[in-house]
UniProtKB/TrEMBL annotation:
Compartments, record wording: Mitochondrion matrix
Record PANTHER family: [3-METHYL-2-OXOBUTANOATE DEHYDROGENASE [LIPOAMIDE]] KINASE, MITOCHONDRIAL, PYRUVATE DEHYDROGENASE KINASE
Protein name from the UniProt record: Protein-serine/threonine kinase
Record keyword Transferase present: yes
Entry GO CC: mitochondrial matrix
Enzyme Commission (EC) number: 2.7.11.-
Organism placement in taxonomy: Eukaryota, Fungi, Dikarya, Ascomycota, Pezizomycotina
Catalytic class of the enzyme: transferase
Pfam family name, one: HATPase_c
Amino acid sequence: MPLYNVTLKKDSPPAELEKAKEKVREQGGTIKHEYTLIKGFTVEYPADHVSTLESSDHIHVEQDGEMRIHNQPRQAKDMYIYTISLVTGWLLLKMALTNALARTASCSVRLRFRLIHNVQKARQFSVSPPPQVATSTQQPFAYGANDEVTRLAASRRRPLTLADLLKHGRPPLAKDALLASANFTLSLLPARLASRIEALRNLPFIIVSNPHVSKIYNNYLHSLSTLLPYQQRQITTLEEEKHFAEVLADLVHTHTDTIPILARGFLECRRYIDPTEVTRFLDTHLRARIGTRLIAEQHLALHFASQPISDDGNPPKDTSPSNYIGVIDTALQPARIVKFCEDFVGEICELKYGVRPRLTVDGQPDATFAHVPVHVEYILTELLKNAFRAVVEAGNEREPVEVTIAAAPDVPRNHVRGPYSVSVGTDPIHPNSDVGFEMDSVVGTADANESIKLSSPSTQSITIRIRDRGGGIPPEILPNIWSYSFTTFSDLDLQSSENGNMDALNAMSSSSGHLSSIAGLGYGLPLSRAYAEYFGGSIAVQSLWGWGTDVYLTLQGVGKVG
């Protein structure tokens, strides 16, 4: 049975190909394969049939050969037809790729010149805003610019401390301190973004091909491309700092939904990747995201708290004293956040179940330390959500959830070092310094007139115990609670969440301003642990199956800042 390859000629309308298909069917032919890269198809005619199909002004017809296997079994015939068609398809694909590579090669000189021009333009660093880049659905890095990603990802990255975020002083900042904060932020972010891009590239191709994972990859490329024009020189004027703050705001906004998008992507790809690999990648990636976002938001908070600022270097008069230095509350009281989270979780629990468990706070409710409130709020919301849900579903809503707060003012492993100074090239480098913090106990400042000192000689930690009578965690589930791919919800629950009908109680992971809902995706506990451990803290779970659960949350701060 003869085979013919029918292809559409260049600049011919697609309608001509449809006409050719109709003619083939009228003549008794069977279309075996259709190609998308090259507009065309393969047609097979019966052995005793005479075809009048021929090339025209719009289509090209080429006979692939006549198969004389009439005496062979049907399976052999079909296999032979499939093999011939597969080879034909591969040859057509090869031709298309060869033409595409030829076109790319012809443009290489022009692209190289454009890349060199962009680098030179970035080095000029005018006070105008950075150039507009492609949207997050496109790849702003093309061709040789990927070498810059590789170089940055391989560069040495200094470890970050909580003291780094406090060292520029209490806002409002003077001009020099604000510029120092901007340059310090700029020195950290590009390498950290490039490291995440490399990590995404190292995932299996089928994972990165997922539209959700691909979107995150392109978001990181977009963010890095907006920072590169600022990397060549120091930020020396308030106008430049203002433009840089706008770039940071775009970066923070672009990555707002990173966690739920990644979660959905890996959920869809769960049959193609081992759950252990998912947990390993996400644990590293989300911890790095915590640091990257915190660095950007810290400078943005300092920027807005210092406005308006004059060119003579004087900050605005501070009329309302605040405990905040950027996004860090230097006198954070965990008991207040517990109360806020209790109200929030309780209202939604009452809406869902019709009952509201009681909560008691004891221990040292007046304890304070320096930490990031939004992180503490997320962790406590997740832990209280689990406790409230457990006691209600166990029928023990009359038994109160007990929260005990204990402050530990002295931690032996943390002790005073000398006054803090920035030395990017000499500080020890940790292999994963972009996924965690080092603790430092003395905080310096860029403003010599106002130094920030700790009132105790060591870093303070606070432990919060949450105890419920919800029946505990089943032994078969307990080993999986720290896995990002594990969830107690069914696929039906996840599908309903995509349609906007997410269970109200499960939506409580989005209580804080920028932490989007990831309910039902199995991310609550492992992500809470990532937030706690990023600052040297921890979360431990003790389950008494048939009775209840104790969760111990340890939060590490920098003591009391004066």
